[in-house]
């Protein structure tokens, strides 16, 4: 009987479970959104138990829906929103605080202090990151400093910290395993990506006890088995990767110079730089990626915090669209934005600006501005932010990109993809499977369990549509100049108050 791989894709806004067959095709999907908690302006939290419950429900649901018995699952691959920090009690397994989400800005002051104290060059050099509230380290510090009794418990070895992969594996294994992989560890600000070990100097600076940290393993091996009662029988958990590294692997970007851009809640462009670590001079991060040989590779990354989330804001905040795909329908009603720019800096700005104090803004409004212009300008902001990142990436790489592989929910939007191609002046290639994050996690689990062989994977990538640039250079430059002006004006807003 056919065997399958089960990918668990724990994203920022939803938990997903996807069954893949040996062709790498999707057999069935289950998805559930969960609560976004905004306790204060700039703060974003998730309930770790809700994450676990939704993830388990969709995993069980997808097997039930397809009528697949547990013994036909060769392995589980886990991929997750990165940086989001959970701290839980080692004895009870209960979180001591909500998860602090990657978008959360509450630790901006801690980061300012790190900069003032001159730690940023060390951070850049050894973690590939910089002092920004985005990463896990300062979030863990905040929990230890602000939850009553937490620090004493942490020092007594009674607390565990983990990114969402660690939390899910802890739950799936019934508290038997406290592990993570290189790619997730590389987002914590606590992990030395040169030495591939936790960095004692940074643990000291951020006052995080080492006993809280998970064991760091490769992205492709058997880490644990699920508790038998969850799915009827144990299933090996055999792949872990942060969602952007998983997407890169799912896009088969396994050779130096290959890159992808994922349009999910945020937008994340990663370019493989091989087994050599390249440090950016233009505002990008260096991060650990997955290699076909199981050895970690390095990538340059441009992280844009708000992309599809801006479309969700049109839907849930402004309520001017009913569903995210409606954005295309409205944007098509106008030929352009009529000079309107939306800068969705709702959580500050990531690459290449790294401004924790930028805030969202709409520029260029006139009496003639209508709903369609604002919707179109919001969509176009995804493409402009991607152009900012690509410009930095090309400068760091020293060569122009020939084509960009895309994936993620918003890459389904044809108008956006065409505009993206126009703005970058490169071919934008959308594969048949845009769920490449889950596919990458499935590949990792499939490789670890012998379900797939490394040489099979690169051949599975299939093009759906290639969008070709059509815009005249002059027009592109004019529009992009407007964007750059708008971004500049949204910066340093919060601090100015
Ligand atoms: N057709 C579309 N046009 C624009 N945005 C879309 C479209 N479909 C989905 N999105 C956006 O894509 C995001 C979901 O993509 P997904 O890859 O599932 O993200 P995540 O993994 O971050 O939850 C949402 O923010 C949604 O608003
Ligand atoms: O949940 P996503 O897919 O938007 O990804 C979030 C990133 O991992 C944050 O670094």
UniProtKB/TrEMBL annotation:
Free-text activity regulation comment from the record: Inhibited by fructose 1,6-bisphosphate (FBP).
What are the protein's UniProt keywords? ATP-binding, Glycerol metabolism, Kinase, Nucleotide-binding, Transferase
The record ties this protein, via Gene3D superfamilies, to:
3.30.420.40
User: What Gene Ontology terms describe where this protein resides (cellular component)?
Assistant: cytosol
**Which family is annotated?**
Belongs to the FGGY kinase family.
- HAMAP family per UniProt: Glycerol_kin
In Swiss-Prot or TrEMBL terms, this protein is called: Glycerol kinase
